[in-house]
Structures are given as C-alpha cells and as structure tokens.
Design goal:
The protein is mostly beta strands. It is built from no helices and 20 strands. The two termini are 18 Å apart.
Length: 233
C-alpha cells in the first residue's frame, strides 16, 4: 500500500474505510501525519519538525487526534482530517502519546509516568484530562476503545511482561486479563463488532499479529511479522 523509501507506521482506517492516516518521514525526512486517499494519492496533514505520530480518527471522520513533540514532552492535538487545519492542543506538561478516539466522543491516551505509564482520558470539546487507569499493578498503556465506547483494552506491564487486559470505561471495574504467559503483547485493537481483539504478540526478532476473543479464550496468529494492527470497519 505504501512504497516510499522512508518508514511508514501506525496506520489508522477512517470510519468509512476509504482513507488511511499514518505517520511517515517521506518528503521531508521529518515524522509527519499523512493520509492515503481512496484514489491512491497522499495528503500531508502536518508539515513540521515536531515528530508527529499515532493518529486516530474521530467517530464522524472529520477530525484526527495525534501526538506531537519529542520523547519526554509529547502532547495530544486534534485537527481537521481534510487538510490539517483548525488545530487544537488537548494536553500539555507531561509526555502523552497513543491517542484513541472512542464512539463516546472521548480520547484515551497513554501518559508516561516515570518508568511506567497510565491511561488518561480527555474530552476534545473541553475540560481537563482525567486519569482512568493509574499506576499500581503495572499501570497501563496502548489504550483502545471498544466500538460501543463502554470498555477499554490496554497493555499492562507486570514483572517485566506486557499483557493485554480489558476493563470497563470507568477504568477499574470489570478488569479482565486476556493474554497469559511471557507474552510481550501490545497494540490492542477491537474488531468492528467488538467480539475480537487483534494485538502484537511475542517473538524475536520479528513479532506476529494475533487475535483473541474479547470475552477471553485462545489466541490465533494472523501474521509472522507485524506491529500496531488496525482493524477496518
């Protein structure tokens, strides 16, 4: 789907399945947000040296949230998905990345906290960010909303091992571990019907993409090598 010599990463399908946002160092050598259009052309949405990445679409497809800034001081921003206009900063003063825009209108994101991380939530319409999954028992990262906006999948590191969990939207009830063993599991993403979760699994030097029932069960490998899966609607 992309053939540029520079690295392309973190693809995200638009809600209508016609466009793919991704981050790339193409054209300028700086990491920016691009969109692969339905006709095969590419539209740059950011053109700066702020290390832009980790894009996610609003439920109506009209806006994109992303993280911008150097490691240690990244911030969550939103912009129009058509041309990158009407930019608005949602967070500041911390190190925030990996935003996930839910059907409930909220943006969940990972906030680095020392050597660990927490999952926070912010309303793009206004208001201060609030913590949902705090430190303790490994904290949490890589958040992903279920299609109905009622649950969060996330990765949690306990004893040096990353595993995938699911929790209710409040961040503390209904907590369930999905993956077991020495997993090194990250990047969860929900199927459109909310019944399965794809994720990056263990392996060195390559890592496979696997899927597992959201209600729990056995996982199934989809690829030999791959990271940051994104599920089309």
């Amino acid at each position: 789907m992309t053939t540029d010599a520079q690295a392309d990463s973190y693809p995200a399908w638009s809600p209508d399945g016609t466009r793919i946002a991704f981050d790339s160092k193409r054209a300028t050598g700086e990491r920016n947000i691009w969109v692969l259009e339905a006709d095969g052309s590419y539209t740059p949405l950011t053109k700066d040296a702020l290390a832009d990445g980790y894009s996610t679409w609003s439920p109506d497809g009209k806006r994109i949230a992303w993280a911008a800034g150097p490691v240690g001081s990244r911030e969550i921003w939103v912009m129009d998905s058509a041309d990158g206009s009407h930019r608005k900063r949602l967070t500041s003063g911390s190190d925030d990345l990996l935003p996930a825009w839910g059907s409930n209108g909220l943006v969940a994101f990972e906030r680095k906290a020392g050597s660990s991380s927490e999952v926070w939530v912010v309303d793009p319409g206004g208001g201060a960010p609030t913590a949902r999954i705090r430190l303790g028992a490994g904290g949490g990262g890589d958040p992903a909303w279920s299609p109905d906006g009622k649950r969060l999948a996330f990765a949690r590191r306990v004893g040096g091992i990353d595993r995938i969990y699911v929790v209710n939207a409040d961040g503390h009830t209904g907590l369930r571990l999905l993956t077991n063993g020495a997993c090194k599991c990250t990047d969860p993403t929900w199927s459109p019907d909310g019944k399965q979760i794809a994720y990056s699994g263990p392996g060195e030097p390559t890592r496979p993409v696997l899927i597992i029932p959201a209600a729990g069960g056995s996982s199934r490998r989809l690829t030999i090598d791959g990271l940051a899966p994104g599920w089309d609607n």
